[in-house]
Amino acid sequence: MVEMRHHFDKEFSLLRAELVKMVSLVSDSVDISSKAFENLDKSLAIRVIELDDEIDNLNREIENLVYDIIARFNPLGKDLRYVVAAMKLSNNLERIADHSCNFAERTIWIVEHLPDFKPSMLVKEMFGVVIGMLQKTVIAFSKRDVNLAIETWKMDDVVDNLDRRITNEVDNIEPHSLVLYILFSRDLERIADHLTNVCEEIVFIETGKELKSFL
After folding, report:
1. What b/e string do you get for 15-26 counting C-beta neighbours within 10 Å, with b at 16 or more?
2. What's residue 170's pLDDT?
3. Among 42, 97, 99, 110, which residue has the least CB neighbours within 10 Å?
4. Are residues 55 and 22 in contact, defined by beta-carbon separation less than 8 angstroms?
5. Residue 189 CB coordination number (10 Å)
6. CA-to-CA distance for 210 and 199, rounded, in angstroms?
7. The whole model's pTM is what?
8. In terms of Cα–Cα distance, which of 38, 26, 24 is closest to 184?
9. 32-51: string of b/e by CB count within 10 Å (b at 16+)?
């Protein structure tokens, strides 16, 4: 029994290490896509797209590791919660990276077709809030900080408000730019939604309760 626990703990540590790596890669993806948009930098946008393959591969590795742990060790209680939530967390992170790719692909299109395009200040502000959410989520995950996860979850309201402003403040904006601003805003809003999902998983892993029960 002690030996079985030792082997489980070893696999558990490997799973956590893979998740930490996934968090780091996705953080890089969002940060680089932000810089690519702000500076209309095609080379940075291409880097985001290249990084997506690495993130997709890591997500599959985490899924396979989770299936293997469940099959070999039949974990229960908090161990089972963590293992199952790890896969959900990884899937949400992979989707965040997909939205970063959307940003990067549009940035490349802008560089190639709209030389006079001016990045929206509201989109930049929204990007800043989303990156702040991501940074806090990383800390909450690494430190298993339930209170920080809840605090970060609440930041989604700020993102939603900026999304509404971008959609509604349309005066004196050229139509092509307006459409792009709204598309960028939608991707950022969805990234924030995935981060709230991650925060919910952190709370569930540590407490076994739904995040909303703490509000």
Report:
1. beebbeebbebb
2. 67
3. 42
4. yes
5. 20
6. 10
7. 0.91
8. 38
9. bbbebbeebbbebbbbbeeb
Instruction: State the sign of the Cα–Cα–Cα–Cα dihedral 132, 152, 93, 191.
Output: negative
**What's the CA gap between 132 and 204, in Å, rounded?**
22
Tally of residues, the chain: 215
Using the structure block, give the residue that is written with the tokens 């739904």.
210
Given the structure tokens 């939530």, which residue do they identify?
Answer: 85
Tokens for 31, please give them. 């940060």
Residues 6+ apart with CB under 8 A from 114: 176, 177
Could you tell me the two tokens for 148? 């920080």
Q: Is the dihedral of CA 83, 84, 86, 87 positive or negative?
A: positive
Mean predicted confidence (pLDDT) in 168-189: 87
pLDDT at 1: 67
- Location of structure tokens 């590791």: 65
pLDDT at 178: 86
149 is written with which tokens? Answer: 């996860």
Q: Is residue 172 predicted with pLDDT exceeding 80?
A: no
Q: Which of 107, 61, 105, 106 is nearest to 86 (CA)?
A: 61
Q: In the structure encoding, which two tokens stand for residue 124, read together? A: 């930049």
Amino acid (1-letter code) at residue 194: H
